Fold this protein.
Amino acid sequence: VNAEPNKKHKLLISGNYGNGSSRGQNVGGFSLPSRENQASFDNQFFQFADTFLANSSIVNQSRFSLSRSKNESFGGSDEAALNVLDAFFGGGSQQNSKNTSLRLEASNDTTWQKERYSFGFGFRIRSLRISQTSFANFGGTYTFAGRIAPMLTADNIPVTDGSGVMQREQISSLESYRRTLLFRQLGYSAAEIRAMGGGPSEFTISGGDPDISLSQNDYGIYFQSSFKLTDTIAASAGLRYEDQTNVGSNLNLAPRLGLVWAPKAKAKRNIWYALPRVSVGYGLFYTRYGLNNILGIRLANDPGRSQYLITEANILDQFPAVPSVAELQQFALPRTQRLIAAGFETPYQSLINISATKQLPKKYSLNVTFAVGRTSRVSFTQNINAPLAGTFDPQDPSVKVRPFGNVGNIYEARSTGRTETERISVNLNFPQTPTFYANLRYSYSTTRTDAVSGSGSPFDPYDFSQEFGPWQWDGVHSTGGFFMYTFTKQKISISGDLSINSGQRFNITTGRDTNGDGYYSERPAFASDPTKPGVVSTKYGLLDPNPSPGDRIIPLYLARGPAYFMFNAAFTKRFGFNEDRANKKPPKQSLFFTVRANNLFNIINKGNPISNMSSPNFLRTLNGSSDGSIMFINGARVINFPGRSLSGSIGFSF
């Protein structure tokens, strides 16, 4: 609802309500039908805004919003889950959960302008409360990973050399699981199965009180001023302060500086020779540490709850039986702990932006922007009680030396990472008319970071010296465009959008936790000996999943996936009611019929290949990337398929 109670106030009041449910969620990719669950959601939103014109120089804007959302998930089975890495994920879904969140936001901005000078100030307050009941992983999960194991004949008999020494090889996660089932059926003991390459690699389980509630508040205040130095040059400066609860970072000052040069066009001068409009800006921007991160830490440390990550053989050898949390507590096995580092601070980005806009003939315009960002205090999680280098034996995970003793894994959230980004973007805007609008865009970016949670070193979980490297979107070329043409008299519009991206990077890993930190993030090495057993030939070189100390580990995100091409189109027909054609006013009510074709040319865009060397599907693409559409059935979002899709919608405005 828009209202103007008087000439000085403009009010906006809006709200919505949504409700929906869906079936068949959590299935697809590697997840088997046994992981299926049902889901439902219910949400409400209310917004109020007031724009107050105090006088010809001062404008005040007040905004308030309140939203509530409730999401529930109902799993089909509470049995133990079975995760055979990058092969299949089966067993029970264990997805029974209910999450209710309440969000509140209020802000106020005041702007004063007088001739060449303007000044603004304001504040924002946000509050979020989450109440959750979750039985996720209360049934436990057994994980099977690749490993070094005896080489077997076709009859599953170990291969030996001439002197009787058993030959060993790298096997996949699926092969490890196959051997587990086979040798259990043959009557082998748990220890014998493990010696033959079977048995799970880890077991995780949660238990205790399923209910938890917590809240977080953040606020910010700012002032901003600008001054027109000359008819062509303007400068601006400002300062913002932010803070939040749950993270003790109190000096979040964010200065902003800007300079704009807009030379005047000379009459009758060739537009090609006209100088562009140039703007330069610098600022600091903080990123709030999300409440969901705090929630994960609280779930691990709440005295009424327990989380375990078990690698001890005496527990793993109980497979397929599932030890309960009560049994693990009885055995005095250490719990998994999660905490925030004492010196944790809010991440921030230092950003420099240079932009130039050039007017072209026939009302075309070209905009070129170059941005350099340096993000400091990037958050990531590290196991600070992982085994010391050289003390962990993947063949016998119970043998290890931990810095804080045998108190279990301690995952600490730290803010010591850094990210460096550079981006250039070019936008060509077509002449805009009442019936036609179009633009073309191109961008290229580089991203490098060391904010990784697990070390890629196969030997040392504390070695992050080689973890500063490219990230997923590093070196990606992105091209796209949009157009819309409207036949005014027929009330018909046709639109289309194009997106072309070069392949994203992906990280190749061995798929084995050989340093004992609980992450499967270790990377292979470039093979120093091409004849070494287990070496895999790829287009990225000969890769050794079992490197020796001194071998050169491959860089982070070495590989690049396939390119992406997408063209979507839409056709809309509008019917207007109660039109005032004499005064050329738009209709008071309109009915819209829209047909949308996603992936019009039916191009199957492949997703990134499987990057786990222990997977039987290593470097194979098993699924397509999304077609970019958002489809809803009974109000619930459903998984998209990669081919062409058609959808229709009806809308009514008044």
In short: DSSP finds five helices and 35 strands in the chain. Residues 180 and 198 are 4 Å apart (CA to CA). The two ends are 10 Å apart (CA to CA).
